[in-house]
Amino acid sequence: MEKSSRNRAPLYSAGKAVRNALRRLGSRWRWAARSEPLSRNFGFDRGTPIDRHYIELFLGSHAHRIAGRVLEIGDATYSRRFGVEAVSQQEVLHVHPGNPVATIVGDISDPLTLEDAAFDCIILTQTIHLIYDMKAALLQIRRALKPGGVLLLTAPGITPLDQYEWQTTWYWSLSPIALQRLVDEVFGSGSSQFSNYGNFYAASAFIDGAALEEVNMHKLTGYDPVFPVIVAACATKMPAAVNESARS
């Protein structure tokens, strides 16, 4: 009996180690009073950033609008994922030369960067806050949309700041009312649908740098207006006749 117990001891220790490892892998994020966050890179170094969950929820809810000639910033990831075969012509804009997938290079707020009435859909995720004159950028985007075309826009609410590529151009974080006022001033009141995402759990985990794979997904549901992580708008460029009748 004593020999049998000794023989089982290494197996028990090994099994305990495996169980502990699995427990760590499957653990849910819990806030702890640390002096440093889990990640200083939005959780990218741990998995999928939490804000991506909300961005993709928003784009998924408007996937039917991602069609025709589509412009996306940086790459075409979301156009391919949500537009699928409805995208007839894909364009990618990047502010700096050297991006191998970019078909347009330039500042989106520069009138010379985009053609007039060229796009059916523009996907502008997590970009507008990197432009100091946000209204100027939105005016150029509206000009570049075809009548009836849509802008799918997301912006950070409660968020850490970037300390890498965009450190010197991260100007803004937007509240829901700020985004609504900004978009309404450019596209006209009543031409846009607004969506906001986040709650205390999501905001706390996101600031801490926890990844999506580490959190309780169920706790990400439910919106608390005090803790918006992502603010979003689907803005439609109304035809000129509609705009004129709205003013009269």
UniProtKB/TrEMBL annotation:
Annotated Methyltransferase type domain residues: 98-152
Keywords: Methyltransferase, Transferase
Molecular function in Gene Ontology: S-adenosylmethionine-dependent methyltransferase activity
Single GO biological process annotation from the record: methylation
Transmembrane segments: none
Pfam entry (one): Methyltransf_11
Protein name: Methyltransferase domain-containing protein
Source organism: Sphingobium phenoxybenzoativorans
